[in-house]
Amino acid sequence: MVKRKEIKYYTKKDLDRIPQLSNLTYDLIFGLKLAAKVFPFRVNNYVLEELIDWENIPDDPMFRLVFPMGEMLETQHFHTIKEAVEKELPAGEIKKTVQEIRYDLNPHPDGQLTANIPLIGNEIVRGVQHKYRETVLVFPSSGQTCHSYCTFCFRWAQFAGMSNLKFATDGSRRFQEYLRHQKDVTDVLFTGGDPMVMKASKLKTYVEPLLSNEFSHIQNIRIGTKSISYWPYRYISDEDSAEILKLFEKVVDAGKHLAIMAHFNHWRELDTDAAREAIKIIRSTGAEIRSQSPVLNHINASTQVWRKMWKEQVKLGIVPYYMFIERDTGAHHYFAVPLTKALKIFREAYSHLSGLSRTVRGPSMSATPGKIAIEGTAEINGEKVFVLNFLQGRNPDWVKRPFFAEYDENITWFNELRPAFGESKFFFEDELNKILKRKALEEKLVG
Ligand SMILES: *Cc1c(COP(=O)(O)O)cnc(C)c1O
Ligand code: SF4
User: Fold this and answer.
1) Per the count of CB atoms within 10 A, which of 105, 164, 216, 313 is most buried?
2) Which ligand is nearest to the CA of 155?
3) pTM reported for the whole predicted model
4) Residue 78 within any structural domain of the chain
5) Is 446 among the domain residues?
6) Residue 150 lies inside a defined structural domain of this protein
7) What number does the ligand 1 atom closest to the CA of 131 have?
8) Nearest C-alpha neighbor of 343 from the set 379, 380, 381, 372
9) Domain range spanning residue 14?
10) From start to end of 8-162, where are the E strands?
């Protein structure tokens, strides 16, 4: 039996109160404090006490997962902010410097801000993104934080207070109104932040209405969460743990598929007693757990890590789902891995595992046109190319139509890809531009 635990949070104001940090070098702490000015920072007692290996700092992947470090800042940014701090500039000046650096880090990647937000009549539906026909993302307003923050998170700008939660649902729950009429939608994915930071009573108000007859087209309810990694006690000993599990059972009893879309970056997150207990408890409700993660330099950019992670997941009854390429935002220069390396890791892990692990797809880039997987490389008529494929497309008809880009072993993101065979554009580009133009026009009309 796992002992109970009560959550205690630490933010950048509390850095000096984290006992485990007292043994680290001055340089490390200094870098950490500078980086924590730019990137969001929050950690809890479980991560500090059970997840991080304090004998292995700074290389421990669990440490790098949550603690910003000097190296995560680009050199010129590091020096700018170091200078500002050393000169003891007024707080307002430092804040301004920090904000300028943040704007330099592509805080809102890939048109997330506007291109996916739907309308009812002339009004935007707050807290909803609808990019792919079958699946709607919902961002509950009370779930826009996490049990701990990841240093690489592509939603970092939101946690750094840069987006005023304009993605989150408002009190009107118009998203339900929207979903009621979208009969093509089969999946609702609650995401954040982390929806599992919400109290059970709150989560219920989002989930339960979808169980009624008017939402019979919604077959699958998904919850995107890193709670199994960062706060497994959510399912074990929080005061509303039992209520959470009851809610999960209720969804399953209503005949829907409940998918916990768990975010695991490293097998270490599966390796504590509490995480294993949480996985067992969640599965006992009839919910399925699927897993996804980006490939991250300095954290999991190794075949061994992925092989072991997928193997462990399958053993624990978790279904490997997506391997992602890290988006071009935040500390991208630190975490980015070339597409060729991600592909190599995928192949070398995947090819050594049984079919039960081969449910996983990727490595995939969530970019403006869709989710694009690098299927492999090939030589065609003497030209070395990437073979690419849409796993999801803004137009569903783009899916499973292999296309080709010039091979380049240094490329780390979609926007660097060039069409192969001397072609001037990819097959979807004209249509994508039309779709985006139409969206922009709609928005203008709405004001
Ligand atoms: C990944 C993603 C989804 C879900 O896609 P599935 O392939 O069904 O898991 C939905 N909406 C957006 C915007 C996404 O990026
Ligand atoms: S838990 Fe998810 S949303 Fe929260 S910081 Fe980590 S990656 Fe981002």
Assistant:
1) 313
2) 2
3) 0.95
4) yes
5) no
6) no
7) 13
8) 372
9) 9-104
10) 9-11, 42-44, 119-120, 123-124, 128-132, 135-138
